[in-house]
Design a protein that fits this description.
- The complex is a heterodimer.
- Chain A is of the alpha+beta class.
- Among the domains of chain A are: 1-153; 389-520 and 638-661, no CATH class; 522-635, no CATH class.
- Chain A contains 21 helices and ten strands.
- In chain A, strands 2, 3, 4, 5, 6 and 7 form a six-stranded antiparallel beta sheet that branches. In chain A, strands 1-10-9-8 form a four-stranded antiparallel beta sheet, with no helix packed on it.
- Chain A is globular, with a radius of gyration of 27 Å.
- By secondary structure, chain B is mainly alpha-helical.
- Chain B has eight helices and no strands.
- The longest helix of chain B is centred in the C-terminal third of the chain and has 26 residues, at 146-171.
- At the A-B interface, α14, α15, α17, β1 and β2 of A face α1, α2, α7 and α8 of B.
Amino acid sequence: MFSVLGNAMLAMSLLFGAFGIIIVSLSLIGDNDYRFLKSGRMAFLSSSTLVVFSTIILVYELMTSNFSIIYVAKYTSIETPLLYKFTGLWAGMEGSLLFWLVIQSFFFILVILQNRKKHPRLMPWVMITMAVIQMFFLILINFYENPFDPVQKGMVVNGQGLNPLLQHWAMVLHPPALYLGFIGFSVPFAFAMAAIITKNLDAVWIQTTRRWTLMTWVLLTIAIIMGGKWAYVELGWGGYWAWDPVENASLLPWLTATAYLHSVLIQEKKNMLRLWNMILIMLTFTLTIFGTYLTRSGIVSSVHAFAATDLGIWFFGFIILIIVVNAVLLIIRRKELESKNKLESFVSRESGFLFNNMLFISMMLAVIWGTMYPIFSEAVTGFKITVGSPYFNRIMIPLGLLTLALTGIGPLLAWRKTSIRSLKRNFILPIVSALLLTAIIAVSMDLKMVYPLVSIGLMVFVSMTILSEFYRGMKARMRMTGEGMFKSLFTMIDKNRSRYGGYIVHVGIIMMFAGFTGKAFDKEADLSMMPGDIQTLSNYEITYVKQWFESPDSNPDTRSNHVAKIVKLDVKKNGKKFHIMEPEKRFYTDQNNQPHSEVAVKTTLNEDFYIVLGDVDLKTGLATMKVRINPMVTWVWLGTLVLLIGTLVSINIEEFFRRKSK
Amino acid sequence: MSLLKSPNKLFFIMMVLFTINMVSGQFKTERQKELESILMAPCCGGGTMAEHDDNQHTLNMKMAINALIMNEYNEKNILNLFETTYSNQGIYRLGFAPATKPVRQVLDHVKRTIHPNMSLAEIVDIFAWIHSPLIMSAPPETGIHQLAWKMPLIVLVIGTIIIIFVIRAYINKPEPVRVQAGGKKTDTELEDRIEKEMKELEI
C-alpha cells in the first residue's frame, strides 16, 4: 500500500519537476512574469518534497521488512539489525539512486528558500539547472531502477540480508557524507551556470556559494577518509587506501574542488581567473557524475562498485550533455570571462596558486588516466591491463610531495610581488630547520628511503612556515594593540578567518601526510598458534589464551545474523601489559554463511597493532592470523579532524548561525 | 554446527603446518611485501595479493611465492605448493584472473624456470604465464604500455609550460584603465585598499 504511494510520489515529482522547468523557462521569455517564476518555484518545492516523502516511505518499508518489495528483500532480512535496515537505503542501486535524489532535493529546497528574495537574475537559472539534474535522477528511478518494484511471483518469507562488509559504523556515515560531498557541488555548479548564462560574471556567484563549496569540500574529504577507515577495519588487509577505481572516483572531484578553493581566492581578491574558476567548478560537478558513472556502469572492475547495469549509457549521455553545454557556454562567454587585471611577477602568491592548480589538475588527470587505462589498453591492444596501487603510488607520491612543498611555499609569497629580501627572510628558517631535522632523523634511524625522508623534510618545512605566519601575525598584533598572546591569537584568527582557517586546514594536511609516510614503515607477519603459545614480534609478545564460539542462540542481541569464532590474545609491549585482543572470524547466516574477518586493532598515537584472524579450528585450537604494525595511522584520522576544524573556522560557522538566528 | 567444519580442512592443516614451520613469528621481508603488491589477487580484481587474505587461492599463491623467495631453497616443497595451488579446480574459475594452464603444464614450467635467488621479475613472470598478464598490478614498462607511465609526466611538463605562458601573458598585459565616474570607486581602488589592509596584516 505505502509502496504504491511512494511510487506515485516519485511519478508526481517527475511531473512537477518538468512543469517547473517549463514554467520558469516561460518566466524568462518575454516580460519576465514574476507569477510564472513563483509558480515554478512552488513546483520545484513540491517536486522535491515528494521525493523526501517517498524516501521516508522506502525507509519505513526497510525498517518493517516489507519483503513484498524486491529492494527490501534483496538488501535486508528479518535478522538484519535495525540500524543496518536503515542503511539498506543506500546498499543497492535503486535505493542509492533515491538517496542521491533525496539529498539533491533537500539541497534544492534549501537553495530556493535561502535565496527566495536574493539574486533575482541568477535564481531562475539556478533553479532550472538544479531541476535538470534532479529530473535526470527522477527519470532513472521512475523508468529504470525503481526501488518500489514489487515481488512478481510468490511470497518472500525472509530477505537476503545486507552484505556483511556494509555492516559497520563507518559504512553508516561514509555514504551519506560522500553523497553530501558529491551532490553539494551541484549548488555552486548551478550558480556558475546561472552566472555564465546571465553574464553576471563578477565574484557574486562565488561569494554566494562560498560556504556551500567549503562545506561540501570538507564533507567529501571526511567521506573519503571515512571510506579509508572502513577499509582499514573492515576489509582486513591492513591498509586504508588501495587506489581502487571506486576510491579513485571519489578522489577526482576532490582534487579539482581543492584546486577551485585555492584559485577562487584570486578571483575574490583580484577579479582574475574567471574563466578558469568557471572551468574548475564545471569540471568538479562533471567529475561527481563521472564518479557515479564509474561505480554504476560496470565499466571498471571494483569490489566496491554496484552490480553492473545498463544505466551506464544514461550517465555517459548525461556527462556528454554537461560537457557540451558547458563548452558552448564557455566559448560564447569567453570575452566576458577574460580578466582585466594583470600579474606583476612570477614570484607572487598568485603564481603559487596557479602552480598549485596545475598540480591538482595533473593529479586528477593521472588518476583518471590510471583508472581508465585498462579500458584504453583493451581498446588498443585487445587485452585488458591491470592498473593497481604500485602504478598510482609511483605516479602520485612525487606529485603529492610537490603539492605539500607548495603548501609551504605559497603562504610565504606576497601578493603581487615578492622581493628577494623577503624571500630570504621568510624561507631561511623553515628550510634550515627542515634540513636539520631530516638529517637528524635520517642518521638516528639509519633511514635511507628517499620518499619518507623528503616527506619528513617537507612536513617540517610546511609546519615552520605556518608557525611563522601565526607568530608574525600575532607579534604584530600584540605590538599594535597591546593585547596578550592568546587574545591577539584569537582576535587575529577571528579577523581573517578565511586565511587562518586555511592554515589550520594545512596543519591537518601535514598530519595526514605524517600518516601516509608511516605506511613506508609498516610490518606484517603471518602467525600460526596453539592455545598457550607465545610469539614474539619486534617488541610485542603475543600469548594465545583461548578460542570460543558465539551464535545468535548464545548472543541474540549482538549476533542476530551471524556466528563467530573468536580467539583471545594477551598482548604485551616491551614486557608490559598492552592489550587483550579478540579478533573474530564471522559467518553471516543470512548471507549464505559468507565469511568475514573482524579485525582487532589497538591504536596508539605512534602505531596501530592490528590482528586479522585467518581461521581457527575450534577443536584443536589451531589459529592462523595476520599481525601488522602500522605506524602513524592515527595521524590520518586526527588530521581529518583538524582539517574539519580549520574549515569550520574558515566558514565562520558561528557568524553563520548568529546571522540566521537574527 | 556444520559451519564450524572448515570446508577445506586439508588445506587449512597444510597451511597451518607450513606457516608454523616456515614463517611464524617473523615479519615479512621487503621482498615478500613487494611481490604481494606487484601481483593482483586473482579472485576479484579489487586489489593486490597484499590486500587479500580471505581467498583460499590467493593464500595458496602467497605460500608458493614465499617458498620461492625463502633463504632455504627447497625445490620439492615449491613444486608441492604449486601442485596444491593449481590442482584445485576453483582457481580456473576465478572471476578476475583465473589460471589458464593445467596443473601438469604449470608444474613442468615451474620446474624448468625456478632456481635459487630468483629475481622479482622472474617470479612475476611465472604467475603472469599461468594467469595471463592481468595478474600484474601495474602495466609493463615496455611497448605501448610505456604510455601509461609517461603520460602523467607529459601532462605535468605541458601543464608547467602552459602555466609559465599564462603567467607571462598576465604579466605583459597592459595596465587596466581606471574609470572615475561620478566619484564612484573603481575595482582597482578597492583592490588597492584590500592590498593595503592585507599588507598591514602580513607585516
